[in-house]
Records
---
Amino acid sequence: MPRSTVARRGEDYPLPIWWHITSHLTSVGDVHRFSRVSKGMAELLAYRRAAMEAEHYMESILNLPRWCDSPHPARSCVESAIRRGRSLDEIDALVRGCSSVSIFYLTGTEPITRNGPALFVAAEMNRVDVMKLLLASGSHHDLRYPVRQGCIDLGHYECVSSYKTCRNALCVAREHGSRDAEAFLLKQGIDDLCDAHCARWHH
């Protein structure tokens, strides 16, 4: 059935009926398709969609020589929701869904690849409300990644080098002119790692 037809008819059904229907879905793709029926459906399925995505991630790393070699999706469900300006309630459900499987999926302690940790995205988009939510859910305000050689390869909270070779959420906030996020992070006691490399970083 065409998605437009599903969306048009879907608005006529109460959410409990949709919940019963979607409880039989078993694939991430089907859950995503039903999530696009309406805003209400997106919020209804947010937790489950996030949990399934995180489960797929965890399954993908089981047979790898090193768990940190696992590739992330080009954009996680939490990152997409933040960039699209979704409500805090929906993002909260997504964060809880991911965290129910693995907090590492959001904290980003593996090598930064195609998408940054959710806290970095929230800093970029100046979403202080989301940053507070992420910190309350287990993300660390001072998570950082190396920009060049001289420090730990993985995401970490303290540098082994006195040189400013790493980049944290404060760098992201300043790069994108997110003044509210910058002020919030400074109040949290985040290390000021910003240097000339911040302006040259293209994420």
---
Amino acid sequence: MELPCGVFFLICLSSLLHFASPTRVAPAPSPSSVEISRPKALLPIFASYKDKEVNSTHREICKKATYPSICISTTIPFFKGKYNRILVLDMEIQALTKGLELAREEVLTASKDEYCARVYEEAIDGAKTAREAVPTKGNVSVGLKGVLTLVLDCKDDIKANRTTSAIEPTNDMLVKLAKNCLRLEANSVGHRTS
């Protein structure tokens, strides 16, 4: 079946006009400062920063994290004078550990969720063990995967018991921090010294 010449012409003209119309692209966010949604309980582990002030090595290492802007913001408070993959991993694990400690306090005072409090306590121990393994080429990823599993267990508990929903943003940020640690650890394999 053939299309009448006029119909074919209209289809071609419509397609041509569609592709020739200017594409509107949303403006890029201002690179001068980066805003991250930070749960109130975890504010002490975040640093505000201006993008142009971030060390280029720090930026490149954190670019490989699952959440690069969170990596930059949470490692700045633990800065030790230089950046390399191992030090940034260590700083992010410190941020995760401190975040777990702050979250545990929030859970005990605000929501009284004993399950998540126990989970965070175990996760704190796991994060500390993972951090101790960093300089010795120990199996950091096993400890970090355990931490992530525990934090996800708390997330499941939160969903099952809506009375603890006040801690949900905190727990979600802990999941992101744990994922950052795992990604940074994967990128540091082969760069750790004995």
---
Amino acid sequence: MQQWINQHWSIPLLLATFGPAAALVFGLPSLPASQPLNCFGGTFVCGIVGLFFRVLVGRQAWLAMGLATACAISLMELMSLAYPPGLNCPLVVKCWSFVIQLLCQAVLILQDWLPQSC
């Protein structure tokens, strides 16, 4: 499905992370997972881990996705960056531009959230 969307609309499939992130940040802003550090940190960690395994494993995307998701969960737990929507990042990341787009997406979500929390 992602290939079909990319071919016809020329946009990456980032809705997998955008929807749950917006629901978490706007719907439950008091949760620790909704805080800015978790939003940026969780997205960044999951994106980098996904990219690392995508490069390491190569053509077997199913293996890269599984390993990356498992390692991302472990790293987020070790770093105290609980952010469940970030776990979609290893599934959609293909190159560095995806990681940058994921972080920009986190900025867009938090841009609307920060004035409410002050």
